[in-house]
């Protein structure tokens, strides 16, 4: 009985199946982030630790799929879509999971206290960033349909519209992040400088989730434009 590598088998069905599989795991990872911040707000250290472990496990699963995909990426894909485009998409997706892991690690490794008045805008920012990642995921799920239509026609137009919306959502997160940073700096005299520094880094990382999601969309937009 011959043994077939699961990633190689997926490539036999579609050049995008492994990429989609990877993005689904990435979204499972990112999907834990809102609950992670809620546990922080509630000062539930046990729940915080459990969620951190889930995120780390999912990030590890995403890394495994990425490594296997890179090892079995057929050169013949050049006939359907540029190999480098697939690797670029894969890298952007993986960066989303890596950022979620960074956030979870910081929240557990350093005891963080949410500054007064920041809990509600923080959760709004987190939710918007996760929604941005979810839209990027939806776009990636359209890749098979794009391939069937030759990256042209109504499907391409629909995906391009989704990419435009993705850009608007990422812009929203930029504004929300800047507002949150201003609120943090307005209270900095009431907190240790190192705490302010870590909170600023955390706000930046949350926004980075949306940044990488937008890059996924932009990579796909360029892929369509070149067809």
UniProtKB/TrEMBL annotation:
Classification via InterPro entries? DUF47, PhoU-like_sf, Put_Phosphate_transp_reg
Pfam families referenced in this protein's UniProt entry, alphabetically: PhoU_div
Name the domain of life this protein comes from.
Answer: Bacteria
Which stretches are transmembrane?
Answer: none
**Family under the similarity heading:** Belongs to the UPF0111 family.
What's this protein's name?
Phosphate transport regulator
């Amino acid at each position: 009985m011959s043994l077939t590598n699961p990633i190689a088998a997926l490539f036999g069905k579609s050049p995008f199946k492994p990429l989609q599989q990877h993005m689904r795991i990435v979204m499972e990872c990112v999907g834990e982030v809102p609950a992670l911040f809620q546990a922080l707000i509630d000062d539930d250290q046990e729940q915080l630790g459990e969620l951190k472990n889930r995120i780390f496990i999912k990030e590890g699963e995403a890394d495994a799929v990425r490594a296997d995909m890179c090892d079995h990426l057929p050169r013949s894909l050049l006939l359907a879509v540029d190999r480098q485009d697939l690797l670029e998409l894969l890298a952007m997706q993986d960066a989303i999971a890596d950022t979620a892991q960074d956030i979870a690690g910081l929240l557990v490794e350093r005891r963080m206290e949410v500054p007064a008045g920041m809990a509600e805008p923080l959760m709004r920012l987190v939710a918007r960033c996760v929604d941005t990642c979810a839209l990027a995921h939806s776009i990636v799920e359209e890749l098979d349909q794009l391939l069937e239509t030759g990256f042209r026609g109504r499907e391409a137009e629909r995906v391009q519209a989704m990419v435009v919306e993705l850009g608007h959502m990422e812009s929203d997160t930029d504004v929300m992040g800047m507002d949150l940073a201003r609120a943090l700096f307005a209270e900095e005299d009431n907190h240790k400088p190192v705490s302010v520094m870590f909170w600023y880094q955390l706000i930046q990382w949350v926004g980075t989730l949306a940044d990488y999601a937008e890059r996924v969309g932009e990579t796909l937009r360029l892929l369509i434009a070149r067809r």
